[in-house]
Amino acid sequence: MRRKSATALAALAVLSVSGAGEARQAVFTENPDWDLAHDERRKIDVAYVRYASGLTVGVRCMEGRLDAVMSGLPEAPRGSRLRPLRIALRDEPMKDSRWNVTRDRTAAVADYPAPFARELREGGRFQVVVPNGGGPGLNLRHDLVLPASSTAIDSVLTACEKPLVDPRDALLPDIDESGMSPGISWIRAPRPTFPSSSRYREGYAVTTCMVRPNGSLGDCVVESEHPNDGLFARAALAAIPSARVAVQGYEAGAYPPRMVGFRTAFSLIEY
């Protein structure tokens, strides 16, 4: 781990075509390491790796909110709030994921930053496929060597009061894009209302909860929120007590502990 310096990581980036419909971005690094930056005045801690290709992978704690960020991506289409990315860590298969588009449309933030940050700590091969990132119908693939981080990411997690080990991480792969694990369905989905005192016209919150035996939800955790002072996480949590789920194959009152995760998008529409 290194403290922030003006010296960029030594790297060689090669861009070539590899197979139909995909541009392959291969990045070879020499002694890559994590940089750690701290801004006391703005209450920001950042651990990041920057490659000569322009791609940066980072974990940021800003005023108590944790974000996992990738920047240096091809610019997202105008008007899009989400962008698909396919990601593989080490020997794991490629997984489809949705990332949130920021004001900087070449950057994206994860819905589940803390679990993603904990995965990054081990380092190893890190592949990112950007659909249509090389042009229409042409995917862009970054194939990187990610350095292991023994202290940099842990420092950022600690700054945001996130656990360094969380058994809930093992339950996340079961959650699909609907937010449900296999065999779980909504009887009554959460219906949050737009926070009246919010200073923003739109935002989102991502929440995970454990299923209780009677189908209600508890032990809820706000995984991410944007903007972090928009009161959207508070609105999402306020709607959870009325929500109910059913678990296939079990009687109500005897549901096993399963996890659900859901993303609530807020948008203020004026008539």
Number of strands: 17
- Which geometry do the CA atoms define? globular
Q: How does the helix and strand content classify structurally? A: mainly beta
Instruction: Assign the CATH class of the largest domain.
Output: Mainly Beta
Order of helices and strands: EEEEEEEEEEHEEHEEEHEE
- Main beta-sheet annotation: 12 strands, mixed
Distinct helical segment count: 3
Radius of gyration: 20 Å
Unreliable stretches: 4-20, 26-31
Distance between the termini: 53 Å
Fraction of residues in H or I helices: under 10%
Strand line-up across the major sheet:
1-4-5-6-7-10-9-8-11-12-3-2
Written description of the protein model:
- The chain has 271 residues and is mainly β.
- It contains three helices and 17 strands.
- It has helices at 113-120, 152-159, 232-238; strands at residues 2-3, 11-17, 22-29, 35-39, 44-50, 56-62, 65-71, 82-89, 95-101, 107-110, 124-130, 139-146, 184-188, 202-211, 217-226, 244-247, 259-267.
- The strands form three sheets. Strands 1-4-5-6-7-10-9-8-11-12-3-2 form a twelve-stranded mixed sheet.
- A hairpin with a 5-residue loop joins strand 9 (95-101) and strand 10.
